[in-house]
Amino acid sequence: MRREGSPFQGLGAVFAKELADNVSSVRMLVLEWLIVLTALAALYGAITNLRTTTAEDPFLLLRLFTLSSSPLPSFVAILGFLIPLMAIGLGFDSVNSEFNRRTLSRILAQPIYRDALLTGKFLAGLATLAVSLTALWLMVIGLGLIFLGVPPGTEEILRSLVFLVIAIFYAGVWLALAMLLSIVFRSPATAALVALGIWLFLTVLWPMLAPALAQIIAPPDPRYAALGLDTPDTGLWTQFLLRISPNDLFGEAMLAILSPTTRTLGAVFLDQLRGALMGAPLPLSESIMIAWPQTVGLIASTIVLFVAGYVVFQRQEVRA
Amino acid sequence: MSEEIHKEPTSASAATVISAEGLTKRYGNTNAVDNISFEIRKGEVFGLLGPNGAGKTTTILMMLGLTEISSGRIQVLGYDPARQPLQVKRRVGYLPDSVGFYDQLSAVENLSYTAKLMGLSLKERRFRIEQALKRVRLDDVAHKRVATFSRGMRQRLGLAEIIVKKAEIAILDEPTSGLDPQATLEFLDLIRELKAEGITVLLSSHLLDQVQRICDRVALFQSGRIVLMGSVAELSVQVLGAGFVVEVEAEGSGIAQRLATIPGVSSVERLTEDRFRMTAERDVRPDAARAVVAVNGSLRRLSVDEPSLEAIYARYFQGKQAGDVRHAA
């Protein structure tokens, strides 16, 4: 059975309206301030640290992103933690609030398909996140210029741009998840709680659970333990399990992009070290190659979650 | 507003704008809408009546292609809503049951969002929205946030949306439920204006006297089926068996039996201790008065009712359980 007409009719109108709603909402303002303030604190730590310790570093600007001064985590770690919160805040009530306000049937009685509504909402959310992250990125570069006084090199700018793109996709995963939950649950409160539960589980509990699970699946070999080494199998399983969490994928990709000396994200093989100058930075293209699987993983999860939401939404009854 | 000029429907006769045949909607094992067929003609006001959950809203959603049809066939203006929903939705306006708007936006902003979804240009949007708000008398609150609107105003705003769309068919789901009497009257006037413009109006309701006031034809729904369909006059003959309902208020013993013996009276119903309702094929008031006097009763009131939808409805739906009460002395 084929339907007539374009599924994208009305997409622009939905996108513009949702973007305006997102940008002007109080909720967004609060989330933005939360992120800006914590990021500023992390940056301040990094800057004071950099001024006292680093004399010469070819990637001074990138250190701003990755350097942490206790008790504060690094800028990237804070983003890895807070981007999901922002995305969930934008998405958790995007569809169910239309049900509850009883606007859904009125909107769907206009000559558009449901596709346009859902896609428009998702793209508007993603655009909002992209705008906020870009603003944050500019803030970091600007502060770096002011306080470090060293103009960034081309490669640093390129690397930080790649960081920005990956961060947007990372936000996309959480936005798609939040929207899926907003379609499945009619009550925004339930959707928000479930989304926050998944977020806390994946960012806080999972890093602790994954090694434990890995030890159950592949018990540590006492011979390795006797030598004070980790069992390779257990290590591989730990990494495999950790990578289920988008948080881990984001962290790994960031490590490869923002620390140019990173040669591998998993176990190091001997042939990878052959002829390697230890501590020498890799070219950008090589770093991207290392971060590529993680990036693809983030993009794929975004698409899978969005499609799941799409399928559920298409089959849903519009009457409240 | 100018006269509508629309495309010749691809099939069905020009006078029929909506036709349904064997329309069925199943949820699991229950039939929400069970094998219904009807035709709606251009320019008429058609009422879908019935208790809540009888399948009225589901029928409406199937017309708009907003819910899938389990079996049967429906055509709206010659289009199939399941396959050509955009064509249907471009020409049909829908005011849902307790319609909602974006509270943080003004009336104009709400309308211009839906007008954008309709694909209207900026100039056209401005013009039509201004006109429509004037029509529903909301032009003085056009830039106020909808959060401050009363229910009646929201309903009128919903109607303005249909006017902006220049719809050929207006589908109104429970448009007057929850409105105060004044707002209801205003709203019914607006519906009449739509009809005067040649717009076909389909409305669902459980408020019978209002439906009776504006509907040309009605369809009575009961658990997913249309049990009765036609104009109010036709239905009253069909259900009440006669056109006259006489109410007698009188005190005395044996009045009911006496009334029942009057020639032409088909039934006598005892409403309270001293009130009786007779259904008859002619105006039996003089005979009723004589009957009361004959048993030494004191007659207080004697009235004749026009056939009302309420009586038809009550008779049809409650006839079965009320059967033992009627004819009781």
What's a quick, concise take on this entry?
The complex is a heterodimer of chains A (320) and B (329). Chain A is mainly α. Helix content of chain A is 74%, strand content 0%.
Cα-atom radius of gyration of chain A? 22 Å
Arithmetic mean of pLDDT of chain B: 85
The count of helical stretches of chain B stands at: 11
| Pair with the biggest interface | A-B, 28 and 34 residues
Tally of discrete structural domains of chain B: 2
Biggest sheet features of chain A: none
User: How much helicity do the residues of chain B have?
Assistant: 25-40%
Number of domains of chain A: 1
* Beta-strand proportion of chain B: 25-35%
Query: Can you give the helix content of chain A as a percent range?
Result: over 70%
In total, how many beta strands of chain B?
13
Strand content of chain A: under 5%
Please tag this protein with its features:
heterodimer; A: mainly alpha; B: 329 residues; alpha/beta; Rossmann fold; Alpha-Beta Plaits; 2 domains; four-stranded antiparallel β-sheet; 13 strands; 36% helix; disordered N terminus; disordered C terminus
Secondary structure blueprint with pairings:
The complex is a heterodimer of chains A (320) and B (329).
Chain A: H1 11-24, H2 26-53, H3 60-66, H4 75-91, H5 96-100, H6 104-108, H7 114-148, H8 154-184, H9 188-217, H10 222-226, H11 232-242, H12 246-258, H13 270-273, H14 284-315
Helix pairs in contact in A: 1-7, 2-3, 2-4, 2-7, 3-7, 4-7, 4-8, 4-9, 4-12, 7-8, 7-14, 8-9, 8-12, 8-14, 9-11, 12-14
Chain B: E1 16-27, E2 30-41, E3 45-49, H1 56-63, E4 71-76, H2 85-91, E5 92-95, H3 107-118, H4 122-135, H5 151-165, E6 169-173, H6 181-196, E7 200-205, H7 208-214, E8 217-222, E9 225-230, H8 232-240, E10 244-251, H9 255-260, E11 265-272, E12 275-280, H10 285-294, E13 298-305, H11 309-322
Parallel strand pairs in B: 3-7, 3-8, 5-6, 6-7
Antiparallel strand pairs in B: 1-2, 1-4, 8-9, 10-12, 10-13, 11-12
